[in-house]
Structure formats: C-alpha cells, structure tokens
Write a structure and sequence with these properties.
The structure is a single chain. By secondary structure, the protein is mainly alpha-helical. The protein has one domain: Lysozyme, CATH 1.10.530. Helices cover 60% and strands 0% of the residues. The chain has 8 helices and no strands. Helix 2 packs antiparallel against helix 3. The radius of gyration is 17 Å and the shape is elongated.
Amino acid sequence: MKKKIFLFVIVAGLLIFNPISCRVMTLATANIMNIQPKFFYKLVKKESSFNPFAISPQGAIGLGQLMPITINSMLPKQYRFSVYFPPVNLYLSAKYTKKLLLKYQNNWSLTLAAYNWGEGNVNKRLPKKIHSKKNYSEQFFDIPETYNYLTYILKQ
C-alpha cells in the first residue's frame, strides 16, 4: 500500500509540476477567470518560463512571479505555502490580473505595466482619461524592463 501511495505522489507531482502541464493550466486558468488567454499565457511565459519553482532576485514567487506583498493581500497566512502549487499560483496571478484590468479600465498595456513595474509607479503616469484599447507602452520607454515586457506580451 505504501508503495502505491508513493508512486501516486510521484506521478501526480510530475504531472502537476512539469512545464507542459503548467502551460495547459495557464490557458485553462485564463479561460476560467475570463481573461484573454494569449496575454495571460505570454505573461506567465515571460515571468517564469513555466517554471513553477521560479523565484526572482526581488523575491517574486512561482509561475506568475507574485511578490510576497501581493500574496499577503490575497491569501490568509496559514495558506501562503500553497503559492508554490501551480494551480494556486496561476489562480492568484489571474485574480491579480483581473483586479488590475478593472482598475485600469480593461487596458492591457497599463495592466501589464502595473503587474511588472508596480501599481504605484504606473499610477504616477496615468493619463487623465484611460482608453481601453489604446496601447500606452510608449509611456514606459524610459523603463527598459517594463517597455520590453509590454512589447513582448502585446505583440501580435
């Protein structure tokens, strides 16, 4: 019995934590959360290359590279360890993306800039009126990491 449980855990781990499964889960999460799959897929690819164990030098965690402060605002303390589990990390990343989309009136360039550079930084550069379809990437030309991030994700 113990051998069967051990094998089950190994197989389940290989299925859940492998990059191909993470790609499929990314698309499924985008569809479930009703956000544009092509943008969310590229976001996760850019953030972690579908490595569920990715940790950035700044401390961002997992597939969606969520910062600890963002995780703290969305998960009760006793469940924070679960951010390393791909479905949880993708759900939280999608939830945060939806929050930003709502805040920036469904404008993907501002949403992605805030995801990458931070809401506070983006808020300082907001236009008086946000147009949902306009690409505001040029506003971040002087921030190479964010500009390149936007260019990569928003290109057709």
